[in-house]
Design brief:
67% of the residues lie in helices and 5% in strands. The chain contains twelve helices and four strands. The protein has helices spanning 10-38, 64-78, 83-109, 117-137, 172-192, 198-216, 220-240, 249-266, 273-276, 278-297, 307-313, 318-347; strands at 144-147, 151-154, 159-162, 168-171. It is globular, with a radius of gyration of 20 Å. The mean pLDDT is 92.
C-alpha cells in the first residue's frame, strides 16, 4: 500500500514495517492475554524440566497468533507483496497453524506434549517441500549452495522433471537440503523457546540481519517481511520478558523458524544462515548430543538439555542466561553478516 507512495525511500519502508509490526504486537497482546486468562488457556509445564519453571504453569500461551497477525498487517500496509513474499508468508502461516494445533492440543488435554513428534515433523516436511518446489519452479531460485570464499555447489545435478504444465523440476538433493534446513530451524527455534524472552530476543536479532541481507540483494519485499517479523518479536518481547505474561508457544516458535529458513532460501544464504542462527544450531545440537550420548553410555554431557537449561542448572539466573544468549546471538549474527557481505563484495 505505502510502497507506491514511498518507492523512492526503500530504507524507510523497511523500518516502517518493523515499527508497524512492533506497535501492532504491543497494542494487541494485552487484550489477547486477558482473553486467554478468561478462558483459562495456559502453558502446561513439563515435569522433567527445571523445578523453578513450575511457577510458569498456567501462563497464557499461543502469543504467536498476535505475532503473525502483526506481520500480516505490517506487510499489507507497507509492502506491495511479490510472489516471493506470498510464498514465504503462506509457508510461515501454515507452520503457525501447525503450531497452533499443537498448542491447542496441549491446552485441551492438559499436558505438556501436544501433537506426536512424527505428526509435527510430517507437517513441517510437507510445508517445507511445497515451499522449495515453488521456490525453484515459480520463483526461479537456483538449486545451488553458496559456500562463502570456497565454492558454489550445484545440488540440481539429480533432477526429475514432471510433465505437468511447463514441467515441474524436482532437484532432489536441493529439496533434501532445504527440507532439513527449514525443519531443523523450526525445531531449533522451538527448542530455544524455553526461557522468558529467549526466542523472541534472539530471533529479533536474526531477522534484522536477514532484512539487511535482503536489502543488500535489492530484494525490498523480503526485507520488509524480515523487518516485520523482527518488529513482531520486539513488540511481543515487552510482555514475554521475565517474568513472562505470555508465551509465544509452538504457534510462534515454529513459524519464526520457518520464516528464517524461507528468507535464507530466497536470499541464497542457505549456508550462511547456519552461522547467523548459530545459537539455534547449538541448542539443537545440545539435545541431539545429549540423547545420543545418554543412549550409549547412560551418562549426560550437559546437566540438562537444551543448552540454556544446562546453565540454569549451573546456577545462572534465568535473566542472566537470556541476556548472555542475546549477546552471543548478536555476535554470531554479526559474524554471519560480515562473512556474507565480504563474500558479496568479492563476488561483485
Amino acid at each position: 500500500m505505502l510502497a507506491s507512495l514511498f518507492s523512492r525511500y526503500p530504507t524507510f519502508l523497511v523500518f516502517l514495517a518493523l515499527f508497524i509490526s512492533l506497535v501492532v504486537a504491543l497494542v494487541l497482546t494485552p487484550g489477547w492475554i486477558r482473553f486467554l486468562k478468561s478462558r483459562r488457556i495456559g502453558q502446561q509445564v513439563r515435569d522433567d524440566g527445571p523445578k523453578t519453571h513450575l511457577v510458569k504453569q498456567g501462563t497464557p500461551t499461543m502469543g504467536g497468533i498476535i505475532m503473525l497477525l502483526a506481520v500480516i498487517i505490517a506487510i499489507l500496509i507497507v509492502g506491495y507483496p511479490t510472489p516471493e513474499t506470498y510464498a514465504m508468508l503462506i509457508a510461515i502461516i501454515l507452520t503457525g497453524i501447525l503450531g497452533f494445533i499443537d498448542d491447542a492440543s496441549k491446552v485441551i488435554n492438559h499436558r505438556s506434549l501436544g501433537l506426536t513428534p512424527q505428526g509435527k515433523l510430517l507437517g513441517q516436511f510437507l510445508i517445507a517441500t511445497i515451499f522449495v518446489l515453488i521456490a525453484v519452479n515459480a520463483l526461479g531460485i537456483a538449486p545451488t549452495l553458496e559456500l562463502p570464499f570456497i565454492a558454489r555447489i550445484n545440488l540440481g545435478v539429480l533432477t526429475t522433471v514432471l510433465p505437468l504444465g511447463h514441467g515441474i523440476q524436482i532437484p532432489w538433493l536441493y529439496v533434501l537440503y532445504v527440507d532439513i534446513l527449514l525443519v531443523g530451524l523450526c525445531n531449533a527455534v522451538n527448542l530455544t523457546d524455553g526461557l522468558d524472552g529467549l526466542a523472541a530476543g534472539t530471533t529479533m536479532v536474526s531477522m534484522v540481519v536477514m532484512a539487511a541481507i535482503a536489502y543488500r540483494n535489492d530484494m525490498l519485499e523480503p526485507a520488509i517481511l524480515a523487518a516485520a517479523l523482527g518488529g513482531a518479536c520486539i513488540g511481543f518481547l515487552w510482555y514475554n520478558a521475565f517474568p513472562a505474561n505470555i508465551f509465544m508457544g509452538d504457534t510462534g516458535s515454529l513459524a519464526l523458524g520457518m520464516g528464517l529458513g524461507c528468507l535464507a532460501v530466497v536470499t541464497k544464504t542457505e549456508v550462511v544462515i547456519l552461522i547467523i542462527g548459530g545459537l539455534y544450531v547449538a541448542e539443537a545440537l545440545s539435545v541431539m548430543l545429549q540423547v545420543a550420548w545418554y543412549k550409549r553410555t547412560h551418562k549426560r554431557i550437559f546437566l540438562m538439555a537444551p543448552l540454556h537449561h544446562h546453565f540454569e542448572k549451573k546456577g545462572w539466573s534465568e535473566t542472566k542466561v537470556v541476556v548472555r544468549f542475546w549477546i552471543i546471538s548478536g555476535i554470531i549474527a554479526a559474524i554471519g553478516f560480515s562473512i556474507y557481505f565480504a563474500h558479496s563484495m568479492l563476488g561483485a
